[in-house]
Amino acid sequence: MNRIAICTLALLAAACQPPETEVPVPEPATMAEPGAVAPEQTNPAPEAPVTASTPESVLQTWASALEAGDWSTARAQWGDEGAQSGLSEAEFAAAYQQYKSIHIEYTDAQAEGAAGSLYYEPEVTMTGEMTDGQPFRMVGPVTIKRVNDVPGATEEQLRWHIASSDLKPHPLE
Question: What is the pTM (predicted TM-score) of this model?
Answer without folding.
Answer: 0.69
